[in-house]
Give the backbone structure.
Amino acid sequence: MTETTLGLGAVNTLQQDDFVAAFGSTFEHSPWVAQGAWGARPFASIDALHGAMINMVRNAPRKTQIEFLRGHPELAGKEADAGTMTTESVGEQASAGLDALSRHEIDELRQLNQRYLKSHGFPFIIAVRRYSKTQIFDQLRRRIERDSDAELDEALAQIDTITRLRVQAKLAA
């Protein structure tokens, strides 16, 4: 079974281990999300599948949400350099040109990433497939200054978009 042939009917029949193998990386290094969502089967739609997964994160205690966010890579950061990002993150960052930044852009992005992390306690998260490189830099500059509670809510909203796109990509049309 490949990602391009996985249909909703097949998803609903997966054993938990197979479900986690198929969807565990959807939420960056957090297979617990797929493990918990498996119990909500059968899913009536792709939206229901994604909803069960995102609700695992949204209903988690705030401390768990922050730990979850801390598991996400910085944009063009140390995880990219070390090659430890998930396949999904590599493709997403490349789609916005973050794999082809100038030295100046890399330096600026890393400085902004550090300011953001220091300010909020978790890395900057944005659904890069929905933004241009310029828009990503602008969003990062703007969001550094926000209240951390509001920013946590924004990060979770961005995760919703990122993971919805990932779930849709895993399922056959």
Summary: The two ends are 15 Å apart (CA to CA). Residues 128 and 136 are 7 Å apart (CA to CA). The domain at 3-66 is CATH 1.10.3330.10 (UraD-like).
